[in-house]
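Collaborator request, handled under Task 6.
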Amino acid sequence: MPSYLGAIGTATPTHRLAQPVIADFMAGALELDAAGRRKLHALYRVSGIGHRHSVLADYGRANGDYDFFPNTPGLEPFPAVSQRMAAYRREALPLALAAAHSTLAQAPGVEAASLTHLITVSCTGMYAPGLDIELVAALGLAASVRRTCVNFMGCYAAVNALRLADGMVRADPAARVLVVSVELCTLHFQKSHDADHLVSNALFGDGAAACLVLGQPLPGPAPSLALRAFHCGLAPEGVRDMAWHIGDFGFEMTLSGYVPALIERGIGQLTTDLLRDLPVRREDIRHFALHPGGRKILEAIEQALGLSKNDNRYAYQVLRDYGNMSSATVLFVLRELLAAAGPTDAGAPVLSCAFGPGLTMEAMLLEICG
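Structure tokens returned to the collaborator:
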């Protein structure tokens, strides 16, 4: 019997910032001349992003009014990792808690104290005792709840967490698993003119998402998603094109311009491998929940799989409204898909994929239930 994913709750910080506003902040921080500012604003305009959220108000303020960054030309001394991790520890729990509360509010009959497993996901901050233990106390979970932390895997980590949850429920159909992903990507702004950092600064936002994985669909009219199959693929030739390292001044993202081409070359085989032993053909799939790593990545997937922009509409919607929130993003996309699902979609297969360092490509096949 499959496990079932449902009740996807999300949360974002209060600071909602338009792309041009963030571009102005970045241009000032990088001390760009007029030509540099025009190029940077052009990069932000073509990103496909309208707004992003941040736990930091500074991205919407002028130099002189900053709380986190120094009010100096060039933001020197630039915040060190310790300062960024202090902000993560302060901000991660409230955001994760809001997403978890939203999830439980959608699941009548599933009390927090009845949960048997908790999986926390993040690649933008770590501390111990950590977010998992804080959530146990804040949500009123049983002290005996079995905790698993998925850390520092990047944008595909929520798929990995769902695979873990699926295994837990298949081993014990009475298990009740809460998955919570929280990412504070904007803490890791890098003051660099390097192309990788310029692109990263233009894409990433903050957000949290949570969901339940159970041995049966949730009661009531809201649809759930049966977790049917998972597959992981690696493209080792891209090991240097997407990476995530801890530097002296935050976590540094490498995101080269070759990533869309690598994904375009690999996504077809990934889908074939996922479906190899299943009674589902690629042509049977009409619903997609793809991680919007960036506009060019979505376009590369469309080219490889023969998708239209309408097929990919949930990913574009999330990219436009939130940007790339690393691991939490694919759960936002699945939430939009579930919200749009109707009775005629029952039994329809869903292809979902996410990507990250390695270059790792994770895929899962789900089925709309209810």
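The cover message to the collaborator said: "The mean pLDDT is 95. The CA atoms of residues 200 and 253 lie 7 Å apart. Please let us know whether this matches your experimental observations."
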